[in-house]
Specification:
10% of the residues lie in helices and 39% in strands. It is mainly beta. It has a single domain, classed as Immunoglobulin-like, CATH 2.60.40.1930. β7 and β8 form a beta hairpin. 24% of the residues are buried.
């Protein structure tokens, strides 16, 4: 039967506790619930109910895990509308905010009542907002 080297046990316990108290990519205050980059995204559309020919302002806020706005973060805003060429905006944040517009096609283009999904991404974080398109002029 072997004897346990008792001097090593406290050393292993102390080192283990020291390692557990350190922040890392998967523990501590630097954990990131929504993205591997640490970015979190919030997107809003105002107004969120539009008629044909109407325009909404899309505001995207990008912040880190501590809630600080991220300046210069790459942002891509897309829409699920049939007019894809009008529904894409690419840029970077200024003081953590990126602003784009979304315009509903004119009634002559065959607009029907629907819901458009606006998706904003920054690195691997994303968020969505809904815009309701109503019938009528």
């Amino acid at each position: 039967m072997r004897r346990t080297p008792w001097r090593a046990v406290p050393l292993v316990l102390i080192l283990g506790l020291a390692l557990m108290s350190c922040d890392g990519p998967n523990r501590g205050t630097s954990t990131q619930p929504s993205a591997a980059s640490g970015f979190q995204v919030v997107v809003t559309a105002s107004p969120n109910v539009l008629r044909p020919g109407g325009t909404a302002v899309i505001t995207v806020k990008v912040f880190d895990t501590q809630g600080r706005l991220v300046d210069g973060a790459p942002v891509v805003v897309t829409s699920s509308s049939a007019k894809e060429d009008k529904g894409v905006a690419i840029g970077t944040t200024t003081r953590g905010v990126f602003i784009a517009t979304f315009q509903v096609a004119q009634p002559s283009d065959g607009v029907v009542p629907s819901t458009v999904i606006i998706t904003a991404t920054s690195e691997d974080a994303f968020a969505t907002a809904l815009i309701t398109v109503t019938a009528g002029v």
